[in-house]
Amino acid sequence: MLDIPDEVLYVIGQNLPTEDLYACLGVCRQWRLVFSRLFWRSVYLQKGANLAQFLGPFEAWAAAADVPVPILMHVRKVKLQLQENEWAHVDDIKILSRLCVHLQSLEVHLKRPWPNDQDMLTRLAPLTSTMFPSEMACLTRLYLDLPEINCHALKRTILPQVPHLVDLHLDRVDFSWGIKDMEVLHGLCPRLESIDIVATVCDNERVDRNIREERNPAKHLHCLRFRALFGLEQRYLNWVKYVTKKYRRTLEDLSLAGDIGTLPGHPDEVPDARFGEDDAPFNLLRSGNSRGKLRYLRLPDALFRERVLTPGLRHVSLTPSQHNHLWPTYYLDTVDASITSVKLECYPADFEPISDMLRRAVPNLTHLDLNCEAIYVELDTILSVCSHLNHLFLESTDRLVWDSTDSEHHTALQQLSLTECFVEEEVFVNINRHCINLAEIVLNGVALVSPEADEVPEVILLDLTGLSHLHSLSSKRISWSSSTDERDELNYIGACGAVVLLRPDNQERIYDIPCHHRTPEHWQRPSQHVLGVRPLRDDDAITEEFYDRMSQRASEAHGRFILEISCLPNLTCYVDDRRLLRE
């Protein structure tokens, strides 16, 4: 999405009569030539002041209901991001949506105040209920991220005006949302293909036996994601029954999420007390997916058991219980050769349950996203039990180790991403030896761990010359830690002060991290282009004097070290989201 050029706003904002301005924009041949290159397909405004400035030049058209704005007739997408104190500008969306007569996608974000401002929520409710002035037949995508979206106003005023809606995202619906509301939604918007709703409370209701696919049919829905802050954990079975009855012919992506901590009683007693031995909903889900439509499944720990898995699944995202003695009930105990992607967020006592599950249940796994805190993760074990693994994403591991001493090569691994992990030195040594087909490495917030190191070394060497296919390396916030005591606790020592690329031809490429402070707020994949950030070329910092200066700085300043990366010439390096280009 592009911002509006200032010179265009200046021309449109001149104090001219409506007829003259309309003639300039839409009739005169010269203006047609100018605006033929400036037709706005999308509008992206980040603040309420920018929204008011944008609407200022169009006040004359806003007063005349039947006069279109030529320059806005081609706008298809509008995205607004308002701050928490700019709730009053929500009313301007009504004007903007009327001016953009062919609008297809509307996305509104309003930051939630913390703590919640009840006065703001009270004033915001009537504005969101009258957001659209009239029927918007062209709108196909609606994304509302607001502190409060009144459920009754949503069904009475907003949804009836968007009958051709295809993609709907609501966060957060207040006060409650249930199965009956889903039926109303399908009746008002029968063409929906994707639904993503976050509600405060899930209604306590049972599935109507009369609900059939013919009543308010959802013939096109392929993605359903529903999350409730309270109440859904007690009604998972009702939602499973509803989903299998309503969407069994088309649904491909299913996600149900709730807060297990809201239930009374001891957490260990929740799963058995909630489900017992009732297998009917699970069998219904399996039989409903006999045609193999369901591909992506995301369920909380309450449904984390093998009987809910359906034939034909490709991706499973699960959050098993943090109580270790419940793992035998939950982990995947059956072999499912169709599952190729698993996302697992768990807090077990050790790594053994995870390795057993990967070894037994998913023999054809190619993508693994693992987030497990406070345990040792054995990288060599993961690569051994998942021989077809291509992409591995590890996050928040207490220690990443490599224990095996065999010479087995793991040729399938192509992408490795480590985020907020403590990694021992031997891990990179073994990666360089055994993962010979690795093509991309991402290091984000990685701490290199060295045993019995009291102070940070001046230079740390990372040898990657054995990875002949490695073409991309991204590093960000690299630090150094040590484990010296008997309890094996990690002690932070220092951070990376500079990165040096050592080529086989002895040509060094140096990147000085403290000298470049322009870093995007959000980390991006190396394959994505970082807009607004100039790539750093080799000639910006190559001189030998600079290397000597950095070595002296690392030795004098406590906690700074130089990271030397020995690599092949075909490697493209990213440091703090900035690409290091060769001459």
Automatic annotation (TrEMBL):
Pfam families: F-box-like. Residues 1-43 form the F-box domain. This is F-box domain-containing protein. SUPFAM superfamilies: F-box domain, RNI-like. InterPro entries: F-box-like_dom_sf (IPR036047), F-box_dom (IPR001810), LRR_dom_sf (IPR032675). It comes from the Eukaryota.
